[in-house]
Write a structure and sequence with these properties.
By secondary structure, this protein is mostly helical. Among the domains are: 18-67, no CATH class; 170-227, no CATH class; 239-306, no CATH class. The chain contains twelve helices and no strands. It has helices at 48-52, 55-58, 71-74, 114-117, 121-125, 141-144, 175-178, 192-196, 208-212, 224-227, 256-259, 272-276. The chain is rod-shaped and about 150 Å long. It starts with 47 loop residues before the first helix and ends in a 30-residue tail after the last helix. It binds heme C (HEC) (13 copies).
Length: 306
């Protein structure tokens, strides 16, 4: 039936309004087919694939007048799922969906900059074109890029440090202001990932032993920084005056190991002869038994107290 047109039964003689001009659409040969072809289908120009489509594919049930006119009324937007709005014709023609002449990718909310502009569609969208359709946050960098080396220790806001140029051009980062671990001395010249390599150190703990271990095996209660800075392990800055035995004279430049032989630094004898027994002159006139500091200080053996 043709509900929107004058019904054939009523047609002869029962001239109605706009549709009354039967000859506009019919010849006198037969009611079917009508005169209307793709070319003369004026109310809605049939181009491209539409010109080849069967009348009934748009006029199912014989609905002519009032057939939907907007692209999205007949075509399900299963590809973009509404993300690009409803004016399909601003990008698509009517021949095929895949040939898109005018397309500014920025309209998707994700402009293609730098390296991305040189990347083929399929690398991101897959051969089906639908790889991103099921992804939660398709525009987030980590959707497509794995930070294999540093992992997620810097959080998920990758764009703070990265742009689609190269992953190497990380902007300068004020480590002293933004963390409790200023980068000083030898640390200041290291590439970031020597410390932030997640494959070696999953979470960066600022304690020196995280990265350097503790050769002293936690054997004393002092802080590493009481003795070390990040220049050379062998440069020791311990303020020995804090102990019960301040260092004077030649002792100030003596190596720690000359007096200390155990890693908890305790149990060192303080009588001069304990360490200097073999230093004294083996001469008859030089005292052997009595306390050396009756006559000597640690400044110089030759400066005699008397
Ligand atoms: C705007 C175009 C148009 C006008 C005007 C028009 N028709 Fe039709 N008519 C059609 C179309 C299209 C068909 C379906 C043709 C087909 O199926 O191939 C049709 C089919 C018919 C049929 C055949 C129905 C059937 O079931 O086989 C009759 C009868 C008919 N029209 C009568 C009329 C009469 C009478 C008038 C004038 C009062 C009229 N039409 C005006 C477009 C029109
Ligand atoms: C791609 C979809 C499509 C195809 C294919 C199509 N039409 Fe249409 N047709 C429409 C649309 C859209 C309208 C306009 C409806 C409106 O504005 O009320 C329309 C309107 C009509 C009308 C009413 C026109 C008028 O002047 O009042 C007739 C009759 C019609 N089409 C017949 C045909 C016939 C016959 C064919 C096959 C040769 C055909 N159509 C193929 C979409 C289509
Ligand atoms: C009244 C329904 C209707 C409207 C409105 C309509 N189309 Fe269609 N379109 C069809 C039908 C039916 C076909 C052919 C069957 C198919 O391939 O889906 C088709 C086919 C197409 C094709 C070819 C599809 C392919 O797979 O090759 C494209 C492209 C297309 N239409 C684009 C559009 C655009 C763009 C608009 C808006 C300007 C639009 N259509 C409006 C019904 C419609
Ligand atoms: C901002 C431009 C734009 C708009 C608006 C737009 N599209 Fe697209 N569409 C594209 C681009 C670009 C493609 C991808 C073409 C390719 O894969 O090469 C595409 C692909 C498609 C495809 C899949 C083709 C395939 O075979 O994978 C369909 C279907 C489609 N669009 C339908 C629609 C419909 C329906 C609308 C309106 C609701 C619409 N599009 C609106 C740009 C647009
Ligand atoms: C670097 C990755 C990347 C490249 C290359 C890329 N896109 Fe996209 N595209 C995206 C992202 C991310 C989105 C946003 C996803 C969304 O909204 O679903 C998107 C969205 C789209 C959309 C709308 C959503 C959809 O899936 O239909 C279309 C269409 C589209 N891109 C087409 C293209 C075409 C055509 C090309 C090649 C010229 C291209 N893209 C190249 C990443 C890319
Ligand atoms: C939808 C997937 C997708 C998203 C989202 C995405 N990219 Fe890409 N990106 C690619 C693809 C594909 C390439 C090219 C292939 C490659 O080199 O990995 C690329 C290349 C790059 C490159 C160049 C890589 C190199 O080694 O030269 C950088 C840098 C980059 N993207 C950064 C980003 C940043 C930053 C973000 C977030 C703002 C982002 N990308 C979001 C897919 C994506
Ligand atoms: C605080 C800054 C910062 C943040 C935030 C950040 N990165 Fe990085 N990223 C770096 C640094 C530094 C490098 C090493 C650069 C170099 O090669 O010198 C790097 C390297 C990379 C590399 C190349 C090395 C590799 O693992 O293949 C990728 C990929 C990468 N980042 C992805 C990401 C992703 C994805 C995110 C978000 C989840 C992210 N980055 C967040 C600083 C950051
Ligand atoms: C010598 C080792 C070392 C180097 C080199 C280094 N970092 Fe760090 N970084 C750390 C440590 C340790 C922490 C933890 C500080 C804290 O807990 O306050 C940290 C913390 C951070 C944080 C904070 C993470 C958070 O949880 O908020 C960021 C971001 C960061 N570093 C980025 C960088 C960047 C970018 C570079 C290169 C310019 C860099 N780091 C170089 C050791 C280093
Ligand atoms: C997140 C890791 C990390 C932490 C924490 C860290 N460092 Fe380092 N440090 C390094 C790296 C990497 C080097 C480069 C040389 C190496 O691999 O030993 C380095 C180098 C050094 C050097 C120079 C070694 C040499 O032989 O050139 C010293 C000294 C040093 N650190 C002291 C410290 C002290 C003291 C602390 C605690 C305040 C500390 N570091 C905390 C990673 C770290
Ligand atoms: C009381 C002082 C003191 C404290 C506290 C201290 N160290 Fe040392 N450390 C030394 C001395 C002395 C040496 C030997 C220097 C030499 O070889 O000349 C040394 C050597 C080292 C070396 C180099 C070992 C080697 O084989 O070359 C490392 C690494 C080191 N310390 C790490 C640490 C760490 C980590 C801490 C904190 C857990 C720490 N130190 C605490 C005094 C100290
Ligand atoms: C001339 C000998 C001598 C030299 C050299 C020396 N110390 Fe000592 N140190 C002592 C004596 C003696 C004590 C007191 C021991 C005691 O109280 O058991 C002491 C105490 C300490 C203590 C305190 C131990 C505690 O638990 O109270 C530390 C730590 C220490 N020394 C570290 C060092 C370091 C580091 C160096 C090298 C920079 C160093 N010493 C060089 C003789 C020396
Ligand atoms: C725990 C061991 C130890 C004790 C106790 C000790 N010394 Fe020393 N002394 C050293 C070491 C180690 C050096 C530096 C290496 C060397 O020159 O033998 C040194 C250096 C000296 C020097 C400088 C030597 C030179 O050639 O410049 C003098 C002087 C000295 N001690 C005097 C004393 C006196 C006096 C006492 C007692 C008050 C004393 N020492 C107690 C270990 C000790
Ligand atoms: C009664 C005072 C006295 C006592 C006690 C004493 N010495 Fe001496 N010592 C001297 C004199 C005097 C010299 C010669 C200084 C000179 O040559 O100018 C000397 C010289 C030395 C020298 C050699 C200096 C040089 O450059 O050749 C050493 C080493 C020394 N004493 C170590 C010791 C030791 C170890 C003890 C404790 C066992 C000790 N002395 C106890 C008075 C004393």
């Amino acid at each position: 039936m043709l509900p929107s047109l004058p019904s054939p039964a009523a047609a002869p003689g029962a001239a109605t309004t706009a549709s009354a001009d039967c000859a506009r659409c019919h010849t006198t040969e037969a009611w079917r087919p009508s005169r209307i072809t793709a070319a003369s289908h004026q109310t809605f120009a049939l181009r491209g694939a539409h010109a080849a489509a069967a009348c009934a594919s748009c006029h199912a049930g014989g609905t002519f007048v009032g057939a939907p006119r907007t692209c999205d009324a007949c075509h399900q937007d299963s590809r973009h799922r509404g993300r690009l709005g409803t004016s399909c014709a601003s990008c698509h023609g009517e021949q095929t969906w895949t040939e898109v002449a005018r397309f500014d990718h920025a309209r998707t909310g994700f402009a293609l900059d730098h390296q991305h502009a040189r990347t083929g569609c399929k690398a991101c969208h897959g051969t089906s074109g639908r790889r991103l359709a099921t992804v939660d946050r398709p525009t987030a960098c980590q959707t497509c890029h794995r930070p294999a080396r540093h992992g997620l220790q810097f959080g998920a806001r990758c764009a703070q440090c990265h742009r689609p140029t190269t992953f190497r051009d990380v902007p300068s980062f004020d480590h002293a202001a933004r963390t409790d671990f200023p980068l000083e001395l030898r640390h200041s010249t290291l590439p970031c990932l020597t410390c932030h390599d997640a494959r070696q150190r999953p979470a960066v703990n600022p304690a020196c032993r995280t990265c350097h271990g503790d050769p002293h095996r936690a054997s004393n209660s002092f802080d590493c920084l009481d003795c070390h800075r990040s220049d050379r392990w062998r440069i020791i800055r311990f303020d020995h005056d804090l102990t019960s035995y301040p260092l004077v004279g030649g002792h100030r430049v003596a190596s720690c190991g000359g007096c200390h032989s155990n890693p908890n630094w305790t149990g060192v004898r303080t009588d001069c002869v304990a360490c200097h027994a073999f230093d004294r002159p083996q001469t008859a006139d030089h005292p052997m038994e009595i306390t050396c500091d009756d006559c000597h200080t640690a400044t110089r053996w030759r400066a005699i107290l008397r």
